Recover the amino acids of this structure.
């Protein structure tokens, strides 16, 4: 009989400890709530914010998450390429542009990003060829409508390197005035 009382007391003691521990837990407002998983769109938007803030490595990581989760998201792949190029990894950016073009051979943005990566590598003639391919598929204003700074950069680049291509793309190219003859 002594063993039974000891067992009941032990069970009662364990129950009291459980009750004591559960009553002493943090109030509900202090309990950490597990973060809700982000949607791919939220991750993509976080990448855009990081890119605009010039945090290119962070942007590349966010776009990579989206592209890995949704391999058919060409916009994530193109933004991933842009972020990699801007963060000093143009060769990786070119590989991603080639992946996009394998899925969509008429993707003007992929040719543009490829050209931008080549320009960062100092391969200017090849860059101009990719820019020309992009412009053959889509007018520059439409191609770069979301990024006026890139549009100005491409315009300046074409003016310097390919004035005829710049004029064909609708960019006004000012010609230096001839010196007066004496």
């Amino acid at each position: 009989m002594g063993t039974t009382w000891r067992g009941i007391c032990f069970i009662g003691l364990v129950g009291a400890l459980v009750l004591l521990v559960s009553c002493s837990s943090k109030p509900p407002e202090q309990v950490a709530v597990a973060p809700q998983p982000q949607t791919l769109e939220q991750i993509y938007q976080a990448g855009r914010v990081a890119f605009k803030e010039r945090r290119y490595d962070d942007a590349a990581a966010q776009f990579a998450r989206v592209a890995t989760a949704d391999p058919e998201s060409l916009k994530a792949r193109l933004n991933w390429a842009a972020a990699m190029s801007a963060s000093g990894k143009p060769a990786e950016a070119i590989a991603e542009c080639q992946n996009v073009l394998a899925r969509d051979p008429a993707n003007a943005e992929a040719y543009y990003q490829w050209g931008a990566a080549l320009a960062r590598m100092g391969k200017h003639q090849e860059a101009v060829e990719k820019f020309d391919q992009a412009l053959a598929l889509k007018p520059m204003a439409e191609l770069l409508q979301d990024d006026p700074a890139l549009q100005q950069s491409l315009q300046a680049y074409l003016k310097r390197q390919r004035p005829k291509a710049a004029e064909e793309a609708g960019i006004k190219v000012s010609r230096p005035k001839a010196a007066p003859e004496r």
In short: The mean pLDDT is 76.
